[in-house]
Every structure is written in structure tokens, then in C-alpha cells.
Amino acid sequence: MHLSIPPTVNYLTGHIDADNVIAKETTLGALEGVFADEVKRAESAQDNIIYRVEMLPAQHAEGELNFGVSHIEPGLIGEEFHMTRGHIHQRKEQAEFYFGSQGEGLLLMQTEQGDVSIEKVFPGSVHHIPGFVAHRLINTGNTRLSALAVWPAIAGHNYDFLKDVGFNVRVLKSSTGYKIVSNDAVD
């Protein structure tokens, strides 16, 4: 019998501790077309890291699960908060769970019919993202927002959702924290 030490996660920071962690950084330069104020995005430092993703090595077989953490840095592009690119699953019927770890923000979800729902993300929050729903994390706080995620290995990610359909609302800074506005209301 062999006793092994499994990977660990720090629930306060979302950091995964394992020898085989896969890490990816997404810079502002890679997010063309994501923020409403494209001029402001293009004028800002393109190497600025907006979010990082850590995950255990991907599983691919039917019935397997993947585990990862998204870390979204605080900040604004124009009046819009830092956020992930957002996606719908390649296998659209596949669901996902997010678990708030640190910081504060919002989980923006949108059905294929354009219906929007938004949930507050905070340490300890649990979020079920049903199948056929696009989703994006938005950091509305002053510190890093981290959320753990578990999703089916066969789900895949369709990032083209953004340019094909896009999200119907934006989250902008306001005097009371944030406001949610229709995408049509943003100049």
C-alpha cells in the first residue's frame, strides 16, 4: 500500500498547491472586444494581467470532472470592472459549480434566449451554473476575487459566444459601488 498526499487548495485564497498545477494568465491585450470602452482598453497597458486561472491537469473522459480557480484582479477599464472573458460550454447542456473563495464580485449568467441572472460572489458562496447558460465573473471589489470551479471534463469552452452573441448587460462603477446597465445603454 502506498500513501500519497493529494493536491490541496487554500480556501481563503483559492491557491492550489500541487506539483502539476496548470496556470494561465490573461492580459488586457488578449481581451479585445470584451470591455465596452475599447478605446480605453487599447490605451491601457496591454501586459496588465486581468485574471489568472489555476487548474489541476485536465481530464477528458466522459464522467470525469475538472477543478480550477479563477483569480480576477481589481480594477476598471473606463467605468467597467475587471472581468473574465466569459463563455458558454462547447457541450452546452453541461453545468458547472463555482465556489466563492476571496473578494467580492458578481457571477453574470445569460441563457441562450438572452435572459440574464446575476448572483453576488463572496467567500463561501456556492453557485450552480445550469447547462445552456453563458457565464462570466466580475470583480466589483478592491481586492482579488477568487472562485473555485468544478465542471464536467467533456463540457469544453466556447469563447466565441462573446463575439457571436455577447452578454446583454454591463457592470459599471457607481457612487454606491456598482450599477448594472443594458449593453445598449453603454456608449
UniProtKB/TrEMBL annotation:
It comes from Vibrio qingdaonensis. It catalyses: alpha-D-glucose 6-phosphate = beta-D-fructose 6-phosphate. One of its GO terms (cellular component) is cytoplasm. Residues 31-168 form the Glucose-6-phosphate isomerase prokaryote domain. Belongs to the archaeal-type GPI family. Keywords: Gluconeogenesis, Glycolysis, Isomerase. GO terms for biological process: gluconeogenesis; glycolytic process. Pfam families: GPI. Its EC number is 5.3.1.9. This is glucose-6-phosphate isomerase.
